[in-house]
Amino acid sequence: MPGRGRRPFRPFRSPGDFAFGAAAGLAVDLLVGDPRRGHPVAAFGRAAAAVERRLHHDHRGWGALHTAVCAGSTAALGAFAARAVRNRPAASVALTAVSVWAVVGGTTLGREARAIGGALAAGDLDVARERLPHLCGRDPQSLDGPAMARAVVESVAENTSDAVVGALFWGAVAGVPGLLGFRAVNTLDAMVGHKSPRHRRFGWASARLDDVAGWPGARLTAALATVAGGDARGAVRAWRADAAKHPSPNAGPVEAAFAGALGVRLGGTLSYDGRVEHRPVLNGEGRPVEVADIDRAVRLSRRVTGLTLAACVGGRLLVSAWKRRNA
User: Fold this and answer.
1) What does the DSSP assignment read for 216-232?
2) Distance set, CA 321 to CA 84, 193, 309, 316, 326 (Å)
3) Residue 234: which of 266, 263, 254 has the closest Cα?
4) Secondary structure of residue 293 in the 3-state scheme
5) Given 71, 99, 168, 304, which residue has the most CB atoms within 10 angstroms?
6) What pLDDT was estimated at residue 16?
7) How far is Cα 41 from Cα 47, in angstroms, rounded to an integer?
8) What is the DSSP letter of 162?
9) Contact at 8 Å (CB) between 44 and 71?
10) Rounded to whole angstroms, what are the CA distances from 21 to 5, 99, 171, 191?
11) Average pLDDT for consecutive 10-residue bins of the chain (327 residues)?
12) How far apart are the first and last CA of the chain?
């Protein structure tokens, strides 16, 4: 009979489901941060590593299969869970809240950054070097104090996009599947998306998918950093002039905007896994990063998080109003 087909899946019954769920999830993250043991992202990482051991070949096709299996199954799990609670508003809000808490990492990002900043302020470079790998993949032994401070500010900027804004954006667009799927893609990129001999071909699909998935969140992060920072004109100038120079299409706009907003100079020489890279300078008119700029970057990251929640909720309200008007 006409009209009795399956109804299309919708990530939320109402904009309020996402608004309340996302706000609650961010509140939980603010209060407790990431658990030391049993984090869902860590569990996903172990599962993805196990799949890699079974599928690994030095070939892009096998890497694409690995990406599809890991990211696809995670998004499918989110879709199944969301469908199971679609007629129960309270359960839908709770599922969104748990998912947001599981995929965002803003509080732990700030804590790690400030811990390194505290060690640098105390002149304890050994402690700072010990903690730096918790935040980024650079070789800490090759960095002095100012270089570590710069690395922390760059990591805060990039991870604000990857660990917070991008996830919330895709959550607003696609609900729980968007939240979990984005985090899965981002985690896979961190695991296999780098240019090591083992992953140069196998990780190609994960890296490219992460570039695509991270594109809107990175631009939103840069725009909100411009609004929330102390120097909007400087942020726009650095974004326009320097973002394209960065080897990453998504880290470039974010780091450039943060650099301009904070009035500091980012980029330059760095080292990953013993490989030295000479990256372009971002916001060359700025001053060198100081230890105090770490706390300024963390506070800017938190303001961007709040604005992201407002923007995503507002976007869902506008889309919902437009659909009602055109129904």
Assistant:
1) HHHHHHHHHHHHHSS-H
2) 25, 39, 18, 9, 9
3) 263
4) helix
5) 304
6) 75
7) 10
8) I
9) no
10) 30, 9, 10, 29
11) 53 74 96 87 95 96 97 97 93 96 95 97 95 87 90 96 96 96 96 88 96 97 96 97 94 97 90 69 95 98 97 90 83
12) 22
Please give the pLDDT value at position 1: 43
**Cβ–Cβ < 8 Å for 277, 270:** yes
Please give the helix or strand (H or E) that residue 195 lies within, else none.
Answer: none
Burial of 50 (0-12, 13-18, 19+ CB in 10 A): exposed
3-state secondary structure of 132: helix
- Measured in whole angstroms, the distance separating CA 245 from the mean position of its chain's CA atoms is 21
C-alpha closest to that of 71 among 239, 207, 216? 207
Residue 302 CA to residue 99 CA, distance in Å, equals 19
Quote the CA–CA distance of 261 and 226 in Å, as a whole number: 6
* CA gap 127, 16 in Å, rounded: 44
DSSP 41-77: HHHHHHHHHHHHHHH--SSHHHHHHHHHHHHHHHHHH
134 closest CA partner among 113, 161, 106, 164 = 113
Neighbours of 244 (CB within 10 A): 12
C-alpha distances (whole Å) from 281 to each of 9, 84, 235, 242, 274 are 46, 49, 14, 8, 21
State how far the alpha carbon of 25 is from the alpha carbons of 16, 17, 217, 220, in Å.
14, 12, 18, 20
How much is the pTM? 0.92
Contact call for residues 240 and 276 (beta carbons, < 8 A): no
- Chain position carrying tokens 């320097």: 242
CA 150, CA 163: separation in Å to the nearest integer? 19
CA-based nearest residue to 298, from 190, 169, 164, 103: 164
Q: Enumerate the β-bridge partners of residue 138.
A: 272
- The whole-angstrom separation of Cα 182 and Cα 315 is 19
Rounded to 5 degrees, what angle do the CA atoms 323, 324, 326 make?
Answer: 65
Q: If residue 282 lies in a helix (H) or strand (E), which one and from where to where?
A: strand 275-282
How many angstroms separate the CA atoms of 289 and 264, rounded? 6
